[in-house]
Input
Amino acid sequence: MKARTKTAFLFDMDGTLLDSVYEHVMAWGQALHENKIEVPVWKIHRRIGMSGGLFTAALTRELGHDIDEATKTRLRDRHAEIYNGISARIQPLPGAIKLLEHLSANDIPWAIATSSQMKTAAPVLAKFGVDPAKHVVVTRDMVRYAKPDPDLFLAAAEKLGVDIKEACVVGDAVWDMLASKRAHALGIGFLSGGYGEEELIRAGAYRVFEDPADMLTHIDEVGGRR
Amino acid sequence: MKARTKTAFLFDMDGTLLDSVYEHVMAWGQALHENKIEVPVWKIHRRIGMSGGLFTAALTRELGHDIDEATKTRLRDRHAEIYNGISARIQPLPGAIKLLEHLSANDIPWAIATSSQMKTAAPVLAKFGVDPAKHVVVTRDMVRYAKPDPDLFLAAAEKLGVDIKEACVVGDAVWDMLASKRAHALGIGFLSGGYGEEELIRAGAYRVFEDPADMLTHIDEVGGRR
Output
């Protein structure tokens, strides 16, 4: 039998390494409200982490009428503006920094794959010691389709030089888990984005942890042998 | 066989009739952050709707050290202040007003039972046409223990003059469902507070709807015959 390759870990960012999901929710809620579009907040929450295009498509279905392109652009810009205004107080999730350090120290390949643009992601990546010049970071602007399409994770595996079938996608959203299935990777779900455990399992997670700290405690159960 | 009494509906307010859970989450998050207490936001979310005393007890467990009484008071006051500052934009959830109107028009008893104080609840009750002088509203200040203790729902049933065993507790939080079990009432869960469906079912919900509009559409399935 050939020696197996080491499991690689492909991380989502918002809600997985960074405690930022609720800030994104509120920023979208406020942007929509200012544009006289009323959507219940929990429905925004359940759409965070998917591609912006699919987000506005879902919104259109929800409202039962189309949103014109100018409004879509205005919403996206206003969301970014509000989010950037509050992002200073956003913290890494418990254990995020230690988990990445552990993987690096044990030569276990890891990367970050986020539906955010690089210009939004770069300032927050620094909060948990990630430098796109040194680590593999794949952002929205590098691929054709964002989550729940598998492109972000496929690109991350390719950049790491690993087989996606030997990789784990780690995320807090149903969209990460759906993308992991489509990429033929295993999915690990975190509760730290505010989804329930069974929502993640039903979407394909083969294991669910609370947050990065909880995953680090159990890392040997999911292929991160020391 | 004796004629059965009509099912009565005992509603939670925040996240069930009012789209306010995420605003409460952010207000707590900001109050804690200002007091140099860092708690991941999803853990705050999962505690909304429980009694303030149990909320701070849970916080103490989470932090691994005690919080002094002065800080607890400061946190509660600051949460109320921030929440009141943003509560103007808070809307009733889809169908909330129509659902209560339907029940009233069909002589189906209903009441509101909330872990909020009357001073916080009164201004928002008006948003969906509820007047504590005309309708049964039970608030935190009227009972000894708030949710997940059953006192609020027991008091609401008593005020309505209905048997709690013939009542349905309607809420968005696991704490409402636990209280419904302890009160020997049936529990109906709503997704509109951001919990997952299975979290509500595991906590005792015998039926789950998206929000008040969804419940109104299916009202004849849960005892609200027209």
